[in-house]
Amino acid sequence: MDPLILARWQFGVTTAYHYIFVPLTIGLGLIVAIMQSFHYRTGNDMYDRMARFWGKLFVINFTLGVVTGIVQEFQFGMNWSEYSRFVGDIFGIPLAIEALMAFFLESTFLGIWLFGRDRLPKAVHLLSIWLVALGSLVSAIWILMANSWMQQPVGYTLVDGRARLSDPVAVFLNERLLVEAPHTILAALTTGGLFVLGISAWHLMRRHEREMHLRSAQIALVVVAVASLLTATSGHSQAQHTARTQPMKLAAMEALWNSEQPASFSLFASIDQKDGTSAREIKLPYLLSVLAYNNTTSEVKGIHELEAEDVAKYGPGNYIPPVAVVYWSFRAMVGLGMLFILLSLTGLVLWWRGRLERRWFLRFAMVFLFLPYLANFAGWITTEMGRQPWVVQGLLRTASAVSPNVGAVELAVTFIGFTLLYGVLAVLDFYLLYRFARPVATVGQGQQDAGLGDVFAY
Amino acid sequence: MDINTIWYALIAVLFIGYFFLEGFDFGVGILLPIVAKDDTERRIVINTVGPFWDANEVWLITAGGAMFAAFPDWYATLFSGFYLPLFLILVALIVRAVGFEFRGKIADARWRRAADSAIVLGSALPAFLWGVAITNLVRGVPIGADMQFQGNLLTLLNPFSLLGGLVSISVFALHGALFLNLRADEVVAERSRLLALRLWWPSAVVLLAFFLFSYTQTDLFSRSGLVPGTLPVLAMITFVASTVLARLRWNGWAFATTGLTIVLATVVAFEGLYPRVMPSSLGKSFDLTVYNASSSPLTLRVMLIVAIVFVPIVLAYQGYSYWVFRRRVTRRSIPGS
C-alpha cells in the first residue's frame, strides 16, 4: 500500500480520535470551574457535589486527551518529516510555546486540584481548576495558530525550498487565527454545555438529585445558548475569510463547479467528481453570496475556473479537493450547529416558563449529547480535506510532506497499533463515563470505594 | 556562546528535567508489584507520584516541541529514524497513563491487576527504550547526505545500545526506590530503601560495563583522552554516594544523589555530542549539528524570549506542587483501608 495513504489515514484517525476529548476538556473544564466558583461564593453544598460530579467526568476525559495528544506532538516528525523540515522554523514555535505555556499549567494544576482538595485553602483549590481551564484554552489558541499557518501561511520567506520566519508578529496575529480560534473554542464550549445538559437530562428523567441536575442543566443551557449562537456568527466570519483566502475550499464546500453571480447556496447535490458536475441540485438563490461576501450581489468563483487559475499559478496538476466529502461534511456541521441553537433556545423558553423538565425536551437533550462530536469532526474534515492537495496552502503538497524513509510496513504497524489501542481506550472511556455519569439512587459498598471522595486520588 | 548553542543547552535541560523527574515515576511504576504487598500499599505507591507524573511527562512534550522549533532537521531525522522505538514509547506512555488514572475508578480485583500490569509495563518499556535511544544518538547512526536516517530497527538494537537501555532502566528503578523511601508510608518506605540497597549492585555492574564499553563504541572519551574528565567521574561518585547515603538513612540526600547521577550522565551525553546533535556513522560530513539542523536566527531569538519568560514560571509552580505534596502518603490517607 502507498505509504502516503497510510500516513494520511493514520493522521486522520489519530487526530479525529484526539479531538473527541479536546473540546470536552475545554468546555467542561470551564463549566466545572464555574460550578466550583458558585460553591465558593455561596457556600452551598449542592455546588460542591455538582463540581465533584462533573469533575470526575472531566478527569476521565482529560486523561485520554493528554495521552492521545503526545502522539500528535510526535507524529509530525515520525510520519511527516519532510513537512517538519519545511515548516519547522515557523510551525514549531506555537507547538513549543503550547507545551511550555499550556501543558505544564494544565497538568501541574490538575494534579494540585485532584490531590489538594483537603490540603489547600479553598481559594487556592478554586484557583487551580481555573488554571486548568485557562491552560486548555491557551493550548487551543497556540495549536490553532499552528493550524492557521497551514491554512494561510504568513510572515515567512522561502529560502532553499523551506519556509523561514520573517515576521513573528504576523504569525502570532494571523488573520486566519482570529476567525478560526473563536469558532473552534466556541464550538468546544457548546460541546461541553451539551454534554452537561444531556447527562443532567438523564438524571432529571429519573428524578435523581433533582435540584443539582436542574441547576446543572440551567448552567449548561446558558453556556450552549451563548456559545452555539456565537459559533454560528464566527463561522460566518470564517466562511468569508475562506472565500478570500481559500476560494477553492469554499467552492468545494458548495460543490460550485461553475462561477455564479450572484451565487446560490446548495441544499442538496449529487456530486460527480470525475465529470466535475453535480445533478439533482436544490439551490437557495443569493445565499452563497451572503455566506461568502455578506451581500447579495457578489460573484463566487467555481471549481473549474479556480482549477485553471491554480494550474496557471502552480503548474499542471489536480487542485480539486474531494468535493463530495467537503460538501457533505460542511452541511453536517452547519445543520447540526443550527439544531444546537434551536435546542438551546427551546430550553431557555421552557426554563422561563418553568417547564424545563418536560420529558420530550429531556429526551432531545439526551440525544443531543452525542451530536456536537459529529459536528466537530465534520468541521475539521471540511477545513482539512478542503485544503487538499495542499498541506500548507499554496506552498507544500501533502504528497511531498511524508517521511521518505518510513516504509509502508512501519506505517502499517503503527497505524494498526494505534487504531487497536485507541479502540480499546474508547471502550474503557465510554464504560467509565457511563458508570460515573449514570443516575444511581443508592451507592453500594463497592461503588463507594470508587465513589465520590476517593476518586480524587488513585 | 551563540544562540544555537544556547538552544542546544536548553533542549539538554529539558531532557535532563525529563529524565530526573520521569525517571523516578518510571522507577516507582516498575517497582510497584515488588514493594507493595496489598492493594492499599499499591495505592500508596501510586499516590506518591499521583500529583506529579503527568506534569513530569510534559517535560518530554516540551523537549519535543522545542526540538521541532529550534532544530527541525534534528526533530525530523530523529523521529522518523527512531520510528518503532518511539512508537513503542508512545504506546507505553498511553497504557501507563490510563493505568494510573483508571485504576482507582473501579473496585474490582481483576480491573486493578490489569491496571497494575499497565503501569509496570508502561513504565519499564520506556525506561529501557530511552537508554537505547540516547545511546544510539551518542554512538551515531547511519545518516546520509540528505539528512535521512538509512538504518532500520536492527540498526538501533545493537548490543551497546541495549546495554544503555539496561543502564537507564536500572538507574531509574533505583531512583524510584529512593523516591518511595522519601514519600511512601513508613513500611513501604523501608522496604523500598532495602530494595534500593540490593538494586544498587546490578546497576553498578551494568553502569561500569557501559562505561568501559563506551571507550570503544563512542568518541565520548576518546576525544578527551583516557581520563574521562570531571563530569563522568562526578557521576560515578554520586552513584556510589547514593548507596552509602541510603545505608545511613540520609534519605533526602540519597534521592538527590541518584538524581545527580541521572543529571550528570545526561550532561555527559549532550556535552559529548556537541556541536553535533546527531552524528552520522557514515561520515563526519553527514553529521547533523547545532548549525546545519537549526531554525533561522529569528526563530531562535523569538523562542529564547519565550523560554526566558516561561521556564522560570513553570519551575516556580512545579516547585510549588512538589512543596504542597511534600508529606508522606500514609495508610490512613487511602480511603477504604
Number of helical regions of chain B: 12
- Quick one: which chains have the greatest interface? A-B, 78 and 75 residues
H-E order of chain B: HHHHHHHHHHHEEH
Arithmetic mean pLDDT of chain B:
92
Secondary-structure element string of chain A:
HHHHEEHHHHEEHHHHHEEHH
Task: Indicate how many domains the architecture of chain B comprises.
Answer: 1
Number of helical elements of chain A: 15
Radius of gyration of chain B: 20 Å
Main beta sheet of chain B: strand number and arrangement? 2 strands, antiparallel
**Secondary structure category of chain B:** mainly alpha
Low-pLDDT segments, ≥5 res of chain A = 442-456
Number of strands of chain A: 6
What level of helicity do the residues of chain B show?
over 70%
User: Which bin fits the share of residues in helices of chain A?
Assistant: over 70%
Please give the radius of gyration of chain A in angstroms: 23 Å
Sheet-strand content of chain B, in percent, reads under 5%
How many domains comprise the coordinates of chain A? 1
Please describe the topology of this protein.
The complex is a heterodimer of chains A (458) and B (337).
Chain A: H1 3-42, H2 45-79, H3 81-115, H4 122-151, E1 156-159, E2 162-165, H5 168-172, H6 175-205, H7 210-245, H8 247-254, E3 265-272, E4 277-284, H9 287-293, H10 303-314, H11 323-352, H12 359-368, H13 371-385, E5 390-392, E6 396-397, H14 408-437, H15 445-449
Antiparallel strand pairs in A: 1-2, 3-4, 5-6
Chain B: H1 3-35, H2 39-49, H3 53-70, H4 72-81, H5 83-103, H6 109-139, H7 153-156, H8 159-183, H9 186-217, H10 230-247, H11 251-273, E1 276-278, E2 288-289, H12 297-324
Antiparallel strand pairs in B: 1-2
Helix pairs in contact in B: 1-2, 1-3, 1-6, 1-8, 1-11, 3-4, 5-6, 6-8, 6-11, 8-9, 8-11, 9-10, 10-11
